[in-house]
Amino acid sequence: MRYQISGKQIDIGEALQSHVKSEIGVITDKYAERPTDANVVFSKDGHEFVCEATVHLSTGLTTQAHGRSAEIYAALDQCAERMEKQLRRYKRRLKDHHKERAQPVELSGAASYILASSEETDDSEPESLQPMIVAEMETKIPSLSVGEAVMQMEIAGAPVLVFRNEGNKGVNVVYRRDDGNIGWIDPSSG
What we know:
Protein name: Ribosome hibernation promoting factor
Strand content: 35-45%
Main location: cytoplasm
Strand order of the largest sheet: 5-6-7-8-9
Number of strands: 9
GO molecular function: ribosomal small subunit binding
Radius of gyration: 19 Å
Number of domains: 2
Keywords: Coiled coil, Cytoplasm, Ribonucleoprotein, Ribosomal protein, Translation regulation
Structural class: alpha+beta
Coiled coil: 73-100
């Protein structure tokens, strides 16, 4: 597995890097078959250290976790615990997903935009109805079943997941509702 371990305005020493590799390696070996790469980023937020980890699995699924603590090793340990909990919760489904799927998840390219928020505090009219684009990026849309999409959204801790439905090849959305349930938008069946 490839590791990319970095720090945002923090020096990451060899001891911390080897600790990251051993912690993440043990978790992925135990719960996930054939992880491809891990990206771990350390940063400082006030007096706390923040550790954010993303692990990509060979099936195309991704798991993400974060931890924060006053100590950098404790932040990593908290992040690793959260990742282990996610993977443990979905271990059976990950194994079943791997057996059913002969090919890795197919990814389609798409454009992703970041739009400027309107910080209008008074009742004035906006100058234009066109939003201002702050950034444009490339993103990937996975081709999944609805169950796999819900699992991917849960593992990644994301509030929304856009995916191509393997059943009808249409673009679908699953999202976490305010009542705690999962919503599914399927434009092709409407």
